[in-house]
Amino acid sequence: MITANPPQPIQTDSKNARKALEQLWAAVGKEIRTHTGNMIAITAADTLETVKDTLLELPRRVASRQIIGVLDECDCVTLEVSLFQVQGEWLERFVLFGNAEQLQGSILPLLAADVLTFLWWTRASSLPPRGKVFDKLTEVADQVIADTLTVNLNERATYALADIAWSRSAPWRELTCQLFDDPEAAEQLPKLERLTIRYVDGRRGDQAARFYGAWLASRLGWQNLSRVRLEPIEQPEPNQTVARGEILGVELVASEANFKIEITSSELASTSVHLPSGSRHSTVKLPDKSLAWLLTFAMDVPEHNDLYRASLKIARDSAMKYEHFADPQAVGTEAAERFVQEYQQAVAARGAFHVALSGGSTPVIVFRALRDKNLDWSKV
Hints:
Elements: E1 10-12, H1 17-28, E2 38-44, H2 48-56, E3 65-71, E4 78-86, E5 89-98, H3 100-107, E6 117-121, H4 131-140, E7 143-145, E8 160-162, H5 164-168, H6 170-179, H7 183-186, E9 192-200, H8 207-220, E10 228-233, E11 247-254, E12 258-263, E13 268-275, E14 278-285, H9 291-300, H10 306-319, H11 328-350, H12 363-370
Parallel strand pairs: 2-3, 2-6, 3-5, 6-7, 7-8, 9-10
Antiparallel strand pairs: 1-4, 4-5, 9-11, 11-12, 12-13, 13-14
Helix pairs in contact: 3-4, 8-10, 11-12
């Protein structure tokens, strides 16, 4: 919550960014400043306001300087410098628009020195977290929050790694453990046969549900998600005000037992345990966490440990999809389209597209389909 009227933002360029920031500080009459950290957020124009609002809710102890890079196709970098007082504490913000390479060169000089640096590569950005630009930013980052389920990040890097989708599953993991506090319930763990996870379908996909299923599979010794059913729900009940991608309910089934958790309202969930000796029911708090809460949780508790890695492996393996086509020509057409998509992303990120082509007769269909594509082959 903003507690004071901030000075008007200043439109400037990268060269004069720090000068503009000094003007803003002079306008509020504050000379002594303490930087607690840098937050770099890479996003897209259509989600910029959401990212701005989310970062304003972060505790100042996390990062007093916020640098938001908005990916677009403009030929020059535009920059807005702002100063906010949130709950009595001052925050600095730079918002830059430009392509990936331009943003990289503009962001690095803006970082406050000698403090922790966080990089949040949002899933909303059109560029996946990989390539030269991502690598350059991770060189200065102490922690990276990114999509780890569908993108292979360098897990041997020096930065800590976190994933908001993993954070989304945290309350469900904790509540699931509580279901088995009773010794009789715990005896059913090796006997569990299948798991159903209901989630709200939408832009966020099934990442939180898949992470939760992979976590439970890893704890039960299941090698994959063959016993796990992910069930998307187009529209939850009116009283279930749950965000897209969030888990709605889970059901664990054994031969003689059944365990359920289900959201009943925006703040509450019901649990039921059916055992040979009888049944028990309860209502627990399970509020829908805001994006700011999830981001803060990911930063405070990276959880990049053996449990996370085991869950990630199962979740990644299960996310692989197999598609069937009517004939070889259809395969060639689809492969060519994906070739073009990868080309566009790589050229935007690095200025070049590096690709290894296989031999034999199969790729010929793809090459034929590529002849009609409008690509700058000098960049391939």
